[in-house]
Design brief:
The complex is a heterodimer of chains A (245) and B (257). Chain A has 245 residues and is an alpha/beta fold. Chain A is 39% helix and 25% strand. In chain B, strand 1 and strand 2 form a beta hairpin. In chain B, helix 1 (21-37) runs parallel beside helix 8, helix 3 packs antiparallel against helix 4 (108-134) and helix 5 (137-146) runs antiparallel to helix 6. By secondary structure, chain B is mainly α. A two-stranded antiparallel sheet of chain B has the order 1-2. The model of chain B has no long low-confidence stretch (mean pLDDT 81). Chain B is built from 8 helices and 2 strands, in the order H-H-H-E-E-H-H-H-H-H. Classes of the chains: A alpha/beta (245), B mainly alpha (257). Bound molecules: adenosine-5'-triphosphate and magnesium ion.
């Protein structure tokens, strides 16, 4: 299979000198769903921010055959849809609808198509009826879902999600898992929600201290109790049993 | 967390609420210009302008008490600035033109100016209150945009509306965190804590702005603000514009006569 994402030897230091990525190598095949797990501060968010050129470290990143470079940036940003960890960073418009329409509008689509996509994306995350609400009138979970809709409306080839299930109630979490299951594009999901990772991701990468410690079949990674514990993670007992069987 | 909103009551339904924002903006602007240019002595005209506002308040079903309360918040500032006008002695005024109160010479013409400023500002401000209370802020922004207000200005206002509450939340969270740990702390220590809080709020806000910009960029933002086309004005809007402008312009002309 061709690679959707190839990362080779990626290093990144934050401006204050803190090293967040220290040589990351990762390949994600087209159509695959890749999980990224790791303790707080492992560098998950930092890594995801590299996938559409928001941060640029040293190393090589290839997205669907396009090298991460200034002249490819526009095309790459159409290809990669990134959902931020904090919905308040993602939702900046005065209404939910405007926010969900923002991406499609920038893609120069016809107004009808923009409106259709925005409504459809909101329906997918079960936020129909909130079109004219202001984001600050929404609960955190609702904002989270609206933030996901802002990316779904762009119909990206690669969907990158940072902590998509945090702060969702059990039913909305379940809905979101179902929704992501139904979207067949390449997905990269960073999360502490190991149950969701186990359900959605074929392979999982374990990140710690800015390095990929292990990458492989999700069950093999999550089922390796010693590996998980050595990296400050813990697979819940029920899930552990399922992974090991 | 809970806040009062500038567009409180804007989710209600009334003939005024259902007007296009452009209609309301144009009427507001014209109204302010007409009121400001009416001569100060035309007391009757101001009374009629007041009636027009009262009528729109009634039509909009916004509680009159709310309008007055808001008005009470803003007008004192105007009065404070205007209060010094009568103390300025004009060389062209004769001895009969001034009165002396507590040994201070007060200019009669200046007094009329204060009166005018008070009445005019009250009228203009209450018109704005009716507008903001009957229009959802995002819709108002759309109206401004479609009236070709500078896009950057509209965008700044939109960010302000979106993030002011996020920032207030952040302040409230920090205050709460500080208060729950500063049981009986000394004043100077709390002052110092407040200083640190302001500093960290500045940094947080700055970094937030950076992340928001990144999020815009990652959705294909390239400096051009694209917006969607929205429906045209209705007959109700035309009717309102004709009645409102006709009425207020007549009052203005009559006041000057
Ligand atoms: N803006 C920043 N400036 C400086 N250092 C940062 C910045 N953002 C993150 N870091 C540091 O970089 C490292 C990686 O952070 P990152 O946010 O990528 O972790 P993460 O794996 O997403 O953690 P979490 O699970 O808490 O979301 C951390 O040590 C963090 O302290
Ligand atoms: Mg993170």
């Amino acid at each position: 299979m061709t690679d959707a994402v190839t990362i080779r030897d990626l290093f990144y230091d934050y401006p204050d000198g803190r090293s967040a990525l220290a040589g990351v190598d990762l390949r994600v095949a087209a159509g695959e769903t890749m999980g990224i797990v790791g303790p707080n501060g492992a560098g998950k968010t930092t890594l995801l921010l590299h996938l559409n050129g928001i941060l640029t470290g040293r190393g090589v990143i290839n997205i669907c055959g396009m090298r991460m470079e200034k002249r490819n940036l526009k095309a790459i940003r159409r290809t990669v849809g990134l959902v931020f960890q904090d919905p308040d960073d993602q939702l900046f418009s005065a209404t939910v609808f405007d926010d969900v329409a923002f991406g499609p509008l920038n893609m120069d689509l016809a107004p009808d198509e923009v409106a259709y996509r925005a409504r459809e994306a909101l329906r997918q995350v079960q936020m129909s009826g909130y079109e004219q609400n202001s984001p600050h009138h929404l609960s955190f979970g609702e904002r989270k879902r609206a933030a996901i809709a802002t990316i779904l409306s762009m119909d990206p080839e690669i969907l990158v999600l940072d902590e998509p299930t945090s702060n969702l109630d059990p039913r909305q979490r379940r809905n979101l898992i179902g929704l992501l299951h139904g979207i067949t594009v390449t997905k990269i999901i960073a999360s502490h929600d190991l149950g969701m990772i186990a359900e959605l991701c074929g392979r999982t990468a374990l990140l710690n201290g800015g390095r990929i410690i292990a990458v492989g079949e999700t069950a093999a990674i999550l089922g390796d109790r010693e590996l998980m514990e050595a990296n400050g993670l813990e697979t819940p007992p029920g899930l552990l049993l399922r992974c090991q069987s | 967390m809970q806040h009062g909103f500038i567009d409180k009551y804007s989710d209600r339904h009334s003939p005024i609420h259902s007007l296009d924002p452009r209609t309301k903006l144009i009427c507001l602007l014209t109204f302010v210009v007409l009121v400001v240019t009416t001569p100060n002595r035309a007391v009757g005209a101001f009374g009629l302008f007041g009636m027009v506002i009262l009528l729109t308040v009634i039509l909009s079903r916004i509680p009159l008490r709310y309008v007055l309360k808001r008005l009470g918040l803003i007008v004192p500032f105007v009065l404070l600035t205007a209060a010094f006008l009568p103390l300025v002695h004009r060389p062209e005024s004769g001895p009969g033109d001034s009165l002396i109160v507590w040994g201070v010479t007060i200019d009669r013409a200046g007094l009329l100016l204060v009166q005018g400023a008070a009445v005019k500002s009250a009228l203009a401000v209450s018109a704005m209150i009716v507008l903001t209370a009957s229009t959802r802020f995002p819709v108002l922004l759309q109206g401004m945009e479609r009236l070709r207000a500078p896009k950057v200005l509209v965008m700044i206002l939109s960010f302000m509306y979106r993030y002011i509450f996020v920032i207030i939340d952040e302040v409230m969270r920090m205050q709460r965190a500080e208060a729950s740990r500063a049981a009986g702390g000394r004043t100077w220590r709390r002052v110092r804590a407040a200083g640190t809080m302001i500093g960290s709020l500045f940094i947080r806000t700055y970094e937030r702005a950076e992340r928001v910009y990144q999020s815009m960029n990652s959705r294909g933002f390239d400096g051009d603000i694209c917006t969607m086309h929205r429906p045209a004005l209705s007959t109700g809007d035309l009717l309102f514009v004709v009645l409102f402008l006709g009425g207020t312009i007549t009052v203005r002309l009559w006041g000057a006569a």
